[in-house]
Amino acid sequence: MSGEQKMRAKKEQVKGKAKEAMGRTVGNERLTAEGRAEQAKGDARQAKEKIKDVLKD
Fold first, then answer.
1. 16 closest CA partner among 47, 43, 52
2. Over pLDDT 70: what percentage of the chain?
3. 3-state secondary structure the chain
4. What is this structure's pTM?
């Protein structure tokens, strides 16, 4: 997995978790949904990079 892409995926996941938690805390459904979407985006990026690594080996 490319180091840069791996860090980017982790950053998206962490940022998404923070947004989701903040949205739940203040009762903002939109913010909660945005957080979940960012987490999913980070998960997808991480999965893509893992597949690339498997195919390289």
1. 43
2. 98
3. CCHHHHHHHHHHHHHHHHHHHHHHHHCCHHHHHHHHHHHHHHHHHHHHHHHHHHHHC
4. 0.81
